[in-house]
């Protein structure tokens, strides 16, 4: 496993306005336009891209500007005199390695990032696959701008896939003193739309298929937030159309320098360009991106929006600000290791080499060492033959396997569901407990937030092994995470932390999901749920439309698994 040395101005709706103080943000919030997440391996979109590229190739193609010489930047040693460092010191028992606070509630996790940004005095590190220009993204960018004005060194690294709407605010942010913004594996030109970006680089589809899926936030080198959430409304239960059940953790202790070292390796890599070298704003016909424009977009002259927080989350914790103000955090402790793919994955290696050195293989290694029990949540679950061999090994050793993933109705990538569906019968025959998230039950439950009329989906990427070890991070159990995207996460040995993670997983599977089984006579799939009084048995993909089922049955036989 690779580890560096040293370790996705209209008025808002009532729901969002109540979560982010309407009096301070209503007049300036842009309407959030829901979009499905685009997986780079979608057959339909790849065909469309290929056709466009063929049509436009004769017109020439763009190229990235040459890399400028730049000195390597590494995170400074944490200053023990900062407020956050003092809180960590006061919260750490003698001899402990790393401390954790799970964040299953979206608004708590968003608030944690904002609280850390507001208290930072030395540095802020921000690394995400998606940082959207919506209420959530603008709230974070505002906090980063304010921190920079206090003299905090801010470094922001964003994958370039979903920057169509956020590139101008990010460019303007980069022109703020004390702020640097870089793009991972950027598109050369045609910045106005995703399809146009691909069409402008018809001979670079292979390179552009490689994305940085990492998620990381570090304040003053002493406190971090890791997990599965991107910076967008739907990851914090603030969207009207769809919202994700996800998992983050606040992290302190000896693993934080490891996380910073991982970030530094990406920041200094040849896969990264300063945003100003890629986005020229006026030159690209996108408009102005200066300090005044940023202030207008973000509403810097108005009081900051307030996040509406419930008194406690499903684990019984209150808002983290109360403990930060008191100078001491309640944390669970254990020995932790940060794991990450190299930023060059897979450009400098074969697919087999990328897999062999991946976070995916690190997690599979943990599973193969399990003695009694494995519990996994993955929104995209395509184990492949290697994964099935590992699961069958668990079954042969009587290790109990529980898997929670999205149902067809909950999956934002129906094409990927076809890859998962191929393995359901085998998983059940091998004795796995298999659960699929129900959008309806998730919306009604309210244990993970108030979803309103939005569609509930699973996005958490977690594992608990033998009630002792856990993994939390960005990695799905699918081919893209294994060989194409870069991923990262943290492995922790802590029975107490594993107990809390299992509690969250159990709530999701028992209150928000269908349990699958095979009919004892026909061998066909059945989905079990409850109407509140008695068990209900369903024999077709629940909550799905006829078109969804027809499309998947039509496309499933012809989609190569390597493209999922």
Overview of the molecule:
It is a single chain. The protein is an alpha+beta fold and 564 residues long. It has 2 domains: 14-326, Endonuclease Chain A (Endonuclease, Chain A, 2-Layer Sandwich), CATH 3.30.870; 337-563, 2-Layer Sandwich (Endonuclease, Chain A), CATH 3.30.870.10. It contains 22 helices and 20 strands. The strands form 2 sheets. The protein has an 18-stranded mixed β-sheet, sandwiched between helices. α17 (414-421) packs across α22 (546-555). The longest helix is centred in the last third of the chain and has 17 residues, at 495-511. The protein is globular, with a radius of gyration of 23 Å.
Key structural traits:
alpha+beta, globular, 564 residues, 2 domains, Endonuclease, Chain A, disordered N terminus, 18-stranded mixed sheet, two-stranded parallel ribbon, 20 strands, 22 helices
Give a quick summary of the entry.
The N terminus is likely disordered. The chain is an alpha+beta fold.
Shape: globular
CATH superfamily of the largest domain: Endonuclease Chain A
| Beta strand count | 20
CATH topology of the largest domain: Endonuclease, Chain A
Rounded to an integer, what's the Rg over CA atoms? 23 Å
Helix content: 25-40%
Query: What is the level 1 CATH name of the largest domain?
Result: Alpha Beta
* Structural domains: how many: 2
- Roughly what fraction of the amino acids lie in strands? 15-25%
What is the CATH architecture term of the largest domain? 2-Layer Sandwich
Low-pLDDT segments, ≥5 res: 1-41, 43-49, 51-60
Give the topology, please.
Layout (H helix, E strand, L loop, with lengths): L13 H6 L2 H4 L17 H14 L26 H9 L6 E6 L2 H14 L3 E6 L6 H15 L3 E7 L7 H8 L4 E6 L9 H6 L5 H4 L6 E5 L3 E5 L14 E4 L2 E6 L1 H13 L4 E3 H4 L12 H8 L21 H7 L5 E9 L10 H6 L2 H10 L4 E5 L6 H13 L3 E7 L7 H8 L2 H6 L3 E5 L1 H7 L9 E4 L3 E4 L3 E5 L5 H5 L4 E6 L1 H17 L1 E6 L6 E6 L4 E4 L7 H10 L9
Parallel strand pairs: 2-3, 3-4, 7-14, 11-12, 12-13
Antiparallel strand pairs: 1-8, 1-10, 2-5, 4-9, 5-6, 6-8, 10-17, 11-15, 13-18, 15-16, 16-17, 18-19, 19-20
Helix pairs in contact: 5-6, 7-12, 17-22
């Amino acid at each position: 496993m690779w580890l560096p040395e040293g370790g996705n101005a209209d008025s808002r709706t009532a729901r969002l306005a109540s979560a982010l103080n309407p009096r301070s943000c209503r007049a300036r919030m842009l309407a959030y336009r829901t979009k499905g997440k685009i997986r780079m391996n979608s057959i339909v979109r790849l065909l469309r891209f290929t056709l466009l590229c063929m049509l436009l190739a004769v017109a020439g193609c763009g190229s990235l500007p040459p890399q400028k010489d730049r000195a390597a930047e590494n995170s400074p040693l944490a200053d023990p005199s900062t407020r956050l460092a003092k809180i960590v010191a006061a919260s750490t028992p003698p001899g402990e390695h790393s401390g954790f606070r799970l964040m299953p509630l979206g608004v708590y996790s968003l608030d944690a990032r904002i609280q850390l940004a507001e208290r930072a005095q030395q540095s802020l590190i921000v690394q995400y696959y998606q940082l959207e220009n919506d209420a959530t993204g603008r709230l974070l960018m505002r906090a980063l701008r304010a921190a920079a004005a206090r003299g905090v060194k801010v470094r922001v690294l964003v994958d370039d896939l979903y920057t169509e709407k956020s590139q101008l605010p990010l460019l303007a942010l980069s022109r703020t003193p004390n702020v640097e913004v870089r793009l991972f594996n950027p598109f050369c030109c045609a910045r106005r739309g995703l399809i146009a970006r691909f069409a402008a680089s018809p001979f670079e589809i292979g390179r552009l298929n490689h994305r940085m899926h990492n998620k990381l936030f570090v304040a003053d080198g002493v406190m971090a937030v890791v997990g599965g959430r991107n910076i967008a409304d739907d990851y914090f239960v603030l969207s009207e159309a769809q919202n994700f059940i996800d998992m983050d953790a606040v992290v302190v202790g000896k693993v934080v320098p490891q996380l910073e070292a991982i970030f530094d390796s990406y920041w200094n890599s040849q896969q990264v360009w300063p945003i100003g070298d890629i986005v020229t704003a006026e030159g690209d016909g996108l408009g102005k991106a200066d300090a005044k424009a940023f202030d207008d977009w973000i509403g810097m002259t108005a009081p900051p929006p307030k996040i509406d927080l419930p008194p406690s989350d499903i684990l019984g914790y209150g808002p983290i600000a109360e403990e930060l103000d008191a100078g001491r955090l309640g944390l669970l402790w254990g020995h932790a290791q940060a794991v990450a793919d190299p930023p060059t994955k897979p450009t400098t290696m074969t697919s087999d080499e990328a897999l062999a050195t991946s976070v995916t293989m690190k997690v599979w290694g943990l599973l193969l060492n399990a003695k009694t029990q494995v519990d996994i949540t993955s929104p995209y679950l395509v184990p492949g033959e290697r994964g099935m061999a590992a699961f069958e090994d668990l079954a042969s050793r009587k290790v109990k396997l529980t898997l929670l993933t999205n149902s067809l109705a909950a999956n934002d990538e129906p094409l990927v569901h076809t890859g998962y569906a191929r393995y359901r019968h085998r998983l059940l025959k091998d004795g796995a407990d298999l659960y699929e998230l129900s959008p309806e039950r998730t919306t009604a439950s309210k244990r993970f937030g108030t979803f309103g009329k939005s569609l509930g989906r699973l996005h958490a990427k977690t594992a608990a092994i033998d009630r002792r070890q856990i993994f939390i991070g960005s990695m799905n159990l699918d081919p893209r995470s294994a060989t194409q995207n870069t991923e990262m996460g943290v492995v922790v040995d802590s029975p107490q932390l594993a107990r809390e993670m299992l509690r969250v997983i159990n709530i999701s599977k028992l209150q928000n999901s269908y349990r699958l089984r095979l009919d004892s006579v026909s061998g066909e799939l059945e989905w079990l749920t409850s109407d509140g009084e008695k068990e209900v048995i369903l024999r077709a993909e629940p909550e799905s439309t006829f078109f969804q089922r027809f499309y998947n049955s039509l496309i499933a036989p012809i989609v190569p698994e390597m493209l999922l």
